[in-house]
């Protein structure tokens, strides 16, 4: 009895649901397909970034060199721990940056590295990498850097303004400026055997890293510097992913670059503070001047209130997903960057002048417009 009842009951709902659905499904599809297509249209980049682990291969891994340091340990002992030996005299260090508009970070960088650097070499263009005319932020704020003028070699790169409507490849303009940096370095008097640091203004090697480069014999001729990556301020530590900056023993074949040059990377060698600006107007400038200006997909991305909101939440300014090559890493990094309350192991000049640089420290996320 019982099984029969079940058999009799089961087909009925099926019959009912067979007759009605077509109309209903058609309507549903009619609604969902455009929503789906619109979603792909609007979030195409996000979707493709989400599936990056499927379509992109990770770059070949770096070989991480251990880095030993503690306060007040002798240079001799530190060199030995790395398998190097102590030199009888220090190497000269040349710190070369192509400057955009990071005035505050440039000041922290130069104050922090001043005792170790022989020459600060700085190239500033009067256009951005995207071919937009740009004020000469460094040249018009020289008084702020007067303390380092006797060590500074500065030049202005005559940029070309992009013709409206034409496309200028920002990476092309960037590489031309790197070429100009090579001749500026020679003018600065660099010679074979000197240390040359190639980094962006916001990639700051730590003083104890420079001391090792200066004082140890046996360091590799080229190594990347693994920097702790921060976003907006030292309140938002992202990870240790920053690798582009390099330290070279200058030689006949050294060329100024900002890309992968060797498999060696020196661990925990400093700080990379991206978009660490004092004023909202500086964020807007950087977002449009930057080699990835194409990431500004909508005008609303440049709205001051949206930028301020994202800074305080630790959210991405371009509404993008992190560039990760495994789903595990991607999911770990999705969403806002968690805040840190630590201001330990930061540049000493920043801590000594904490009042002047509140915006870079915990609790300082609110930024004036300009
Ligand atoms: C630093 O080292 C020197 C000698 O190596 C020692 O005399 C001095 O007390 C040390 N200072 C601290 C703060 O440990
Ligand atoms: C940049 O400088 C060069 C050389 O001084 C000049 O010819 C050019 O007009 C300048 N461009 C802008 C956008 O100011
Ligand atoms: C602090 C300071 O002097 N800032 C100046 C830097 O240069 C710009 C012009 O490029 C001026 O507007 C700032 O006042």
UniProtKB/TrEMBL annotation:
GO molecular function: beta-1,4-mannosylglycoprotein 4-beta-N-acetylglucosaminyltransferase activity
Listed transmembrane segments: 21-42
Gene Ontology cellular component list: membrane
A single BP term in Gene Ontology: N-acetylglucosamine metabolic process
Keywords: Membrane, Transmembrane, Transmembrane helix
Pfam families: Glyco_transf_17
InterPro entries assigned: Glyco_trans_17
Superkingdom classification of source: Eukaryota
Designated name of the protein: Beta-1,4-mannosyl-glycoprotein 4-beta-N-acetylglucosaminyltransferase
Organism listed in the record: Vigna angularis var. angularis
Gene responsible for this protein: Vigan.01G430900
């Amino acid at each position: 009895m019982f099984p029969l009842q079940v058999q009799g009951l089961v087909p009925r709902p099926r019959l009912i649901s067979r007759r009605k659905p077509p109309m209903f499904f058609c309507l549903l599809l009619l609604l969902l397909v455009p929503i789906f297509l619109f979603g792909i249209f609007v979030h195409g980049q996000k979707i493709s970034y989400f599936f990056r682990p499927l379509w992109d291969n990770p770059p070949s891994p770096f070989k991480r060199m251990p880095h030993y340091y503690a306060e007040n340990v002798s240079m001799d002992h530190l060199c030995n721990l790395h398998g190097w030996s102590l030199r009888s005299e220090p190497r000269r260090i040349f710190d070369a940056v192509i400057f955009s508009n990071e005035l505050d970070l440039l000041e922290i960088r130069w104050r922090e590295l001043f005792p170790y650097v022989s020459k600060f070499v700085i190239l500033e263009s009067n256009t951005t990498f995207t071919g937009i005319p740009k004020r000469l932020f460094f040249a018009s704020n020289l008084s702020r850097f007067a303390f380092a003028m006797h060590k500074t070699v500065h030049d202005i790169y005559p940029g070309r303004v992009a013709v409206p409507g034409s496309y200028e490849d920002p990476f092309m303009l960037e590489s031309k400026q790197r070429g100009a940096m090579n001749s500026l370095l020679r003018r600065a008097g660099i010679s074979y055997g000197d240390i040359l640091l190639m980094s962006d203004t916001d990639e700051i090697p730590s003083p104890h890293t420079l001391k090792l480069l200066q004082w140890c014999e046996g360091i590799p001729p080229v190594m990347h510097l693994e920097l702790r990556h921060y976003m907006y301020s030292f309140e938002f530590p992202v990870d240790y992913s920053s690798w582009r900056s390099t330290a070279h023993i200058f030689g006949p074949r050294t060329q100024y670059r900002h890309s992968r040059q060797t498999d060696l990377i020196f661990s925990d060698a400093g700080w990379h503070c991206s978009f660490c600006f004092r004023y909202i107007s500086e964020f807007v400038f950087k977002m449009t001047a930057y080699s990835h200006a194409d990431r500004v997909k909508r005008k609303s991305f440049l709205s001051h209130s949206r930028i301020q909101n994202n800074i305080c939440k630790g959210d991405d300014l371009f509404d993008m997903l992190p560039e990760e090559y495994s789903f595990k890493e991607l999911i770990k990094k999705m969403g806002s960057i968690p805040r840190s309350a630590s201001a330990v192991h930061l540049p000493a000049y920043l801590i000594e002048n904490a009042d002047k640089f509140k915006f870079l420290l915990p609790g300082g996320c609110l930024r004036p417009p300009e």
